[in-house]
Amino acid sequence: MGAKNCPETPRQKMINMMYIVLTAMLALNVAAQVLEAFRVVDSSLLHTLKAVDAKTNQVYSSFEMAFAENPTKVAEWKNKADIVRASTENMMSYISQLKENLVTYSGSKLADKDNPVSSDNFYLVTSKGDTLIIEKEDDLNGPSELMITQKKAYELKDKIEEYRNTLVAQLGEDDVELRNSILKGLETPDPVRKLKDDSENKTWETQYFLDKPLVAILTLLSKIQIDVKNSETNLVNYLYAQIDAESFKFNKLGAQIIANSNIILQGDAYDASIFLAAEDTTQQPQIFINNKEVNVVDGKANYVVNTTKTGIFKWSGLIKYKTPGGIIKNYPFEQEYQVVKPTVTMSATGMNVFYLGIKNPFDVGSGAIPRDRLEVTMTNGKITKSGDAFLIEPKSLDELGKRTKVTVYANINGKRRLIGTSVWRVKQVPDPVAQVAGQAGGDIRKERIQIEDGVMAVLEDFDFDFKYRVTQFEVQTSGIAGYAIIKKSKSNRFTAEQKKQLRNAKPQSIVYISNIKAIGDDGRTRKLNPISFKIR
């Protein structure tokens, strides 16, 4: 694209072809006619160089005027153009000085009133404006010694490659055509060796500067200067075109509103940005959502997804749009949304009770706020999280609810907000009831009590997962003559002696179980009320 801004003219193509033909003729004979032809080609190259230079200077002047009118818009491209201009001036100055060194090395004399330039002379105008009359335009030894032996040709190649890299660095990744044009116009490749050629490998340096007459080398250097200026012109024209290349043309306007959040707490501010959005109805952008291209209508795409679970979900996409300059630009984006379950919180305010020694399940009615954004703290205990629920573990009794407070915070838009507080009482877990065969006393069949293994401690009407285990008890029955028989157990199971007691029990006699102790999951031991059974 950029190379079309300053294409190679037919005249330049003809000059390049003439140089190739004349170089080939040198292999046969360095005749006067050949030298004269090189003079013509070099003179034509210098005239072309002045024309290209004048055209490029006009672009630089346009840059200066555009920058004065709108520095913000033009600064990026003008800075790049300034880099190209400085690099080109250095490169042109280096080649001009190299020409002067070649002419001086091969022999020349300064033109003056006593030694004027004639039409038969081949001469060089220096950077200071002096005119050097070339005395040995057919010199083969001097140029070879300076360029090859003294490595000036190798230095020139490095300078060309450095300049080429500087120009390419001013281009973006999408500027492929202009990049290739610059690389080709300033290439310095070594010649390809033929399979049947037994001679030594040639390099770019030896191919163009070894055993070549001075006039041919000067003409080659003029051609390199033309290549440098052409590359500069192409790139500067391209950079100038980029000032307006990104200025999109839109033909439809509409209001758009974007809110700061879809969840607003009472007391917080609702913040929304209102702006005028522009649209080009003549072309549609490409829109990709989660790496999949979607349908676009009136410049817009809809993202619709079914929600099956709660939480925060992220999604992303990419918008591709062609600029007026023909370059595809990418505009990535990321968004997130929240899915909440419709909930209602019901509670009996007088029943705010935690039990000491157990992990009390605690649910927070968060409404529209996702649970993973909630933070729960408390005094007189600690809180741990289990899945979506919280577990409350009080550390001491607080039956009047003076020291136990639960506080809920929410993370909304990166800020920690207080949602609410509540006061709770901390009570002991109720005492269990001793049971045998699921009974806490009363009539019982003898065969039923005989098959039981021991005494259980049961929490009646208590919904928490808390257990007691009997650690001791005594069984008392009536013996012969009415005296009491008492047998002890140090566990929750009937001993062999207690089993014998139960087998010997007479109908209508009383079995009395007392001195019952049980230990709970909290490690505390409770003394339970005794129970009695009448044998049937």
Concise synopsis of the structure shown:
By secondary structure, the chain is of the alpha+beta class. The protein is built from 10 helices and 25 strands.
Radius of gyration: 50 Å
Helix segment tally: 10
First CA to last CA: what distance? 110 Å
Approximately how much helix is present in the residues?
25-40%
Shape: rod-shaped
- Please state the structural category: alpha+beta
Largest sheet: 6 strands, mixed
| Counted beta strands | 25
Strand-residue fraction? 25-35%
The mean pLDDT is 80
Residue stretches low in confidence (pLDDT < 50, at least 5 long) are 1-6, 26-30
Number of domains: 4
Molecular structure report:
The chain has 536 residues and is of the alpha+beta class. It has 4 domains: 2-245, no CATH class; 252-339, no CATH class; 349-427, Immunoglobulin-like (Sandwich); 433-535, no CATH class. 34% of the residues lie in helices and 27% in strands. The chain has 10 helices and 25 strands. It has helices at 10-26, 32-69, 71-106, 141-149, 152-168, 176-185, 204-209, 214-245, 446-451, 496-504; strands spanning 108-110, 122-125, 131-134, 252-259, 272-279, 286-289, 292-293, 311-322, 328-339, 353-355, 360-362, 374-378, 381-386, 389-394, 405-412, 415-423, 425-427, 433-435, 442-444, 456-458, 468-478, 484-489, 510-520, 525-528, 531-535. The strands form 8 sheets. Strands 19, 21, 22, 23, 24 and 25 form a 6-stranded mixed sheet that branches. A 4-stranded antiparallel sheet has the order 7-6-8-9, with no helix packed on it. The N and C termini lie far apart (110 Å).
